RNA sequence: GCCCGGGUGGUGGAAUGGUAGACACGAGGGACUUAAAAUCCCUUGGCCCGCAAGGGCCGUGCGGGUUCAAGUCCCGCCCCGGGCACCA
């Protein structure tokens, strides 16, 4: 009759599986609720206790909503394409499909043990052809669409062609395009279009397609034959292998997310997402209003974007990004060598680097001059790497008087600094105030900045030297990857022009290759595939990035087996948007932006009836690991050279590795040194002879010790540690410990990321084995607020385990009044329980309803740690009241079910129910049981609480005040003086000001 | 540098502007037990006065402010974590 979590949990997990308890039906009269977890990538390391945190929270909500009468969609699947599997494949030769399959199976097993109410019948994997068929299909829709600025939505390219045929392409089309491809396309007439050859037409259309091929800057690593992400490049070389990396322009598939910049920005406001996450997206989209200004240079002109056209008369030079196409043409012959050298080095620095080194100013003069559009003055043209090729026009008008970066550049190169605002101290720094008054001569003089901006734009437009413009920081998303383990892009090339594969050819299945590496000529792995062609034409060899499948997967869950459509219209209409989306904040600008982008695109095509994927989003915090660090003697300096005592350079061989108790190391260096001396004498006889002449200086380092070798008081299991260490050495090596005064070896605790390399990973399987899934679930929630990061400390889990045992014992106390134990029609287990049918007391009802109220409200705002605390309070109170009453315990069991579903199911069955507890309606709390007759008022003097006085709640403010003042204790405190003021807040506090 | 979080006992944390430290871990003491485990009870922010009952002072990163009353609101800092754009 003891709480046997293992038996209970296995039993119920089996039943849920066999009975399909959590299958969600697409046809239901019930209202729907869609709870989604961010897609996991099934890594080889399996789950640690940090991973399920969000899943437990979403499972609680899913189960709660079922109790409230909703038809709940709560699916799970795998984002199963990705780099780790590919890298593992390169190392081991194992096909990524195989390792992915194994990893997913392992995930599934671990997830099952936690008792989630997922509808596994809807599981999807992005690497399954029947899933990525539709990822490819959506890609084709993107390829066949353009963004119509008039309709402000994506439209079929066929409409664009019809437009060209009818009226050609006039200026406006080109001017509204944004993003990386923002180059002047050039107007053409209908006749011209009709006269273009196929190639030219396709090239023109590329400029409009939402999935398009264009040259983009990439970090190319010739040695690895691949493109690297910014964070894979360190100091100009690849992070792995240290091979040189160069910035190179390569044809790349991109998605024109920039077309959606404004809508992605506007769509944020109504979403119930964390404000900080919305802000991050706003910053990422980076809308800025300003103007473009054209500065003539010889026959060309340099176009700049500025948010401060009001500072136009403060321009003292122009700066081009090293990548800017006009750099070569603007450079005078005498400057060529210098400029080319600068451009070469600057271009190959990563953007990260260029941006990180704020203090280092670098640049070079091109030798040529631009003309100021208003004054006609000569403006020197410089190249500087503080200007980025990918933002704006890749050129800035430098106003050192109004912009600190320009100021620094001007200072460094001795360029003129012109004051643009009144009261600026330009000798010291630029004046970036937006409320200043412009002081330059001409039409802007005396205007405030905002007025001056408007005026400047008007004047620029009047003389045709520029115009007002909104600029976005957001860039188009690179969509091609030089990798194997991703969705093939359904494109083939005829005469080097990309064409879409017909839909009937989908899925374009990932081909087999002999190796998962680039070809010798540097082509992506798919180029190794035999017959990688379509009707004799070569197929695209890059694959889609990791985020492709996750940009639309939430729709597939609605109708996962549909072979005709990505999901039926009926299922999409029924399930609609995700009601609650839970995941980590690391996805705030990647996944979540693409997710919203694809949703808006599918909405534009009338394929789905909503244009935001998730109404409400919650970021769960990270669970950090608690590492155990053990100091060791890394090095002992002696006057003649250095003797290493650790690692492979261990000498002298007679001296063991010395590990130092953390508490000892914390005490004093002397104590450590003393013990080292003792060990040296012991293990190194020669040392004794020389000891007098040698003064040693030990240096300590720390190693991460497996936390399983450390107890709750940080005491190291030294035998276990020695075993582990010895198994790591190829040659036998002595190990000794410098202990503290108690003879113990302690480790030092540190909170850091939970990871294998830090030996601080806690596996949920181990926790479940010992305490059960219900305890794990409760403890993960009890740890603290969901959104916050917090360290995992297994030692604290006893509290939640004890709670469950106490809860169980409320139903099984043999000390309960001798009433007839309820007969248990449970089909699987017939332990008697001790439950009475007596009417509950007022106190019992109060506990129950206070708990129902708190838990219901807490689930509403995802405050699960406080609900668990309330359950503990309830169990403690009911235990003290010796309550064994069905009328109390039954509703409480339902309330606990979302949190600890196994024990709840078991007790529910024992209470005589034959249906799963998940079908039980949520118990409602009733305020009448919470009403109090009296309240114990804290009586404070000048805000400091001094005593408590109990008064009936029926007392009015004046009566209360009189009663308080009449109290002898209060009188004593007042010492006969009259209070200056008495503040009475009914049911709160009485404050007496003296 | 900028943006976003966060700083409360030994630890995780709780607290609509109204009794700071709920709940839990750990620690200390006790009961039960041959013993252990399990369970139960008491104490547990710091300092001080008192034999005791009890009482006083301090206390939510730091410094100011608003208020009858501030962990909570405002201003100025410091520190930690996360993100990022020298973004024109």
Largest sheet: 5 strands, mixed
Low-confidence stretches: 175-184, 646-650, 816-828
In CATH terms, what is the fold-level topology of the largest domain? Rossmann fold
CA(first)-CA(last) distance: 61 Å
| Beta-strand content bin | 15-25%
Assigned CATH architecture of the largest domain: 3-Layer(aba) Sandwich
**What form results from the Cα inertia axes?**
globular
Overall mean pLDDT: 86
Task: Provide the gyration radius in Å.
Answer: 36 Å
Count of folded domains: 6
CATH class of the largest domain: Alpha Beta
- By DSSP (H or I, 4+ residues per run), the number of helices equals 33
Question: Can you walk through the features of this model?
Answer:
The chain is an alpha+beta fold and 994 residues long. It has six domains: 5-139 and 549-619, HUPs (Rossmann fold); 151-259 and 477-538, no CATH class; 287-472, Alpha-Beta Complex (Isoleucyl-tRNA Synthetase, domain 2); 623-752, no CATH class; 765-929, Isoleucyl-tRNA Synthetase, Domain 1; 934-993, Ubiquitin-like (UB roll). It is 35% helix and 19% strand. The chain contains 33 helices and 34 strands. The strands form eleven sheets. Strands 24, 25, 27, 29 and 30 form a five-stranded mixed sheet that branches. Strand 18 (491-494) and strand 19 form a beta hairpin. Helix 25 packs across helix 26 (773-782). The longest helix is centred in the first third of the chain and has 19 residues, at 96-114. The chain is globular, with a radius of gyration of 36 Å. The protein starts with a helix and ends with a strand. The structure holds one RNA strand of 88 nucleotides.
